[in-house]
Design goal:
By secondary structure, the chain is an all-alpha fold. The chain is built from six helices and no strands. The protein starts with a helix and ends with a helix.
Length: 241
């Protein structure tokens, strides 16, 4: 549209055609520097990823290498051929028009063949340095993080050990309290038996003093023996428990 407007306002046709040719040449150069070279470098990136996957023990079919290499070679040939053919056409047009600028344009198209490989080379160096930095830095960070995690786990273990020791002490106190209560219960049972026996003897003596009837005395003594044998029979299992 700009060229049409320039021609409409009275610009010389040679200038308009020259500007149009320059714009078309730049667009074509942009296409040459992007499409085939991007596919070529992408194929090389795939090959690098395949090699890295195999280093890590992953299984990758050999057909993937063959296909990626084939695409890389084909795109490289297309890119170089595009630059060479374009330079030849520009040179031929310059010779036909008798313009020295055709030589410069042809040389520029030939020189542009090295633009993308040089840029890709420096980009590859930058990525490689980034990978080396990551390999050097991340393991160090991992070690620091691992040490922090280990220290956290050890602190948790010490806390658990302290809690367990407290529980053991509390359990020992409960056992001692249980043993003390058991001993107290046994002592009280023995004391009750002793008091019952003493009361029974005292009752027998009192009965002997109160009456002279032998039958009554014999019956009361039998009743007392029955009472004494009752608590004794009950005490046996209780004491056994």
């Amino acid at each position: 549209m700009a060229l049409v407007i320039a021609y409409a306002v009275g610009a010389p046709p040679e200038v308009v055609l020259g500007a149009g040719a320059a714009v078309l040449g730049l667009l074509w150069l942009l296409l040459l520097l992007t499409a085939p070279w991007n596919l070529c470098f992408r194929a090389h990136s795939v090959l690098a990823e395949i090699a890295l996957s195999r280093e890590k023990g992953l299984s990758v079919a050999a057909e993937r290498d063959v296909e990626a290499q084939r695409i890389a070679r084909m795109m490289l040939r297309v890119a170089v051929a595009g630059h060479v053919v374009t330079a030849a056409l520009v040179l031929a047009a310059g010779l036909a028009a008798g313009r020295v600028i055709g030589y410069w344009c042809a040389g520029f198209f030939l020189l542009s063949t090295a633009f993308r490989p040089a840029g890709a080379y420096f980009e590859q160096l930058r990525r490689r340095l980034g990978l080396l930095l990551r390999d050097v830095k991340y393991p160090r960070d991992d070690v620091v993080e691992l040490r922090a995690q280990v220290e956290h786990v050890l602190a948790g273990m010490r806390i658990l050990e302290d809690k367990a020791e407290e529980q053991y002490r509390a359990l020992a106190e409960l056992r001692r309290a249980r043993d003390a209560l058991t001993n107290t219960a046994y002592q009280r049972a023995d004391a009750a038996d002793d008091r019952f026996t003493a009361l029974a003897k005292q009752f027998e003596q009192t009965v002997d003093r109160l009456t002279d009837n032998e039958e009554i005395i014999t019956g009361l003594k039998a009743f007392l023996r029955l009472l004494r044998s009752g608590p004794g029979g009950v005490q046996g299992p209780v004491c056994a428990r």
